[in-house]
Amino acid sequence: MSALLLLPRNAVIAVLRLYRVAVSPLYGDVCRYHPSCSRYALEAVQQSGVVVGTAQAAWRVLRCNPWSRGGVDDPPARLRSSYRITTHGFVRPAEQPGG
């Protein structure tokens, strides 16, 4: 059941990963922040879910402009311990001990 609830989050993660592979390299290294805006969005959705993560990513994109100083700006960590991130970046329910 928990994996079904994570389906929208993983669908957005799949779109972001596709963007990072197909579109992001075309722009080159132009982001004023580290990590890049696309990686920030990916991590925000992984850790905070679709709604909150998308809002965080949108705010980050709005802040990324020529007048910004930039710098290191990581998304706030909110990943619950009941989830784990796979090697491919998808979110899965954590294995429960003894279950």
TrEMBL record:
The keyword S-adenosyl-L-methionine does not apply. It is found in: Cell membrane. The keyword Protease does not apply. It comes from the Bacteria. Pfam families: YidD (PF01809). It is a peripheral membrane protein. Keywords: Cell membrane, Membrane. Could be involved in insertion of integral membrane proteins into the membrane. Belongs to the UPF0161 family. This is Putative membrane protein insertion efficiency factor. It comes from Amnibacterium soli. The lineage of its organism: Bacteria, Bacillati, Actinomycetota, Actinomycetes, Micrococcales.
